[in-house]
Amino acid sequence: MEGIERIKDHIIRQADDEVEVLVSETQRFVAKEVGDAERQVRLILEEATLRADMDAKELVRRGEGLAEAERRKQGLVLKQQRVDQVIDRALDLLLNEPPEERMARYASWVNGLGLESGVITLSATDLSEIGEKLLELLPPDRFSINPVPGEFSGGIVVEHGRVRDNLSYELIVRDHRAELARLVLSHLEEVMPEEL
Q1: What stretches of 105-169 adopt beta strand conformation (E)?
Q2: Which of the listed residues 86, 118, 140, 196 has the most CB atoms within 10 Å of its CB?
Q3: What residue ranges in the chain does DSSP mark as E strands?
Q4: Which tens digit of pLDDT belongs to each residue from 146-190?
Q5: What is the CB-side half-sphere exposure of residue 143 using CA atoms within 13 A?
């Protein structure tokens, strides 16, 4: 759907904006984790020198493996946090776009569904900011705006007949989170591969 592609494109554009902040935070985090891992390895090495040669080699090997596993685990946690931050930031930017842009997006979604008529539910913010103005971008007298706001932050829900098309941002992100996460990670790894 064109709207989903726009959201994906928007998220990727927002990832570019977040890269400088992410690079600095990631470098600090990685330096700390490397320092912690090096301290952990040094402690293990000191203990290993007090034991027999075979025991020392085994302890060093185990210590390095644990440090690497912890580094990888922390790296995965950091990556997930970065993905969540980028997606949250992109959603925040979508929610705070000018009303005209939101109206155009929502109208394109309704038109993209090929509907002849229906009832459109908006978030409380969108209802107060664009409400009935959205109808000006749709075929006259075919659609109406639900006076009760939906319990979502942005996007729309369109009811037509017995069908309810939920195009709220929350649902779109939830349904496509894995794909969005892969896109964000792929983009971030292209921009700052060493830090991730």
Answers
A1: 118-122, 143-145, 155-160, 163-168
A2: 86
A3: 118-122, 143-145, 155-160, 163-168
A4: 999 999 999 999 999 999 999 999 999 889 888 988 888 888 787
A5: 25
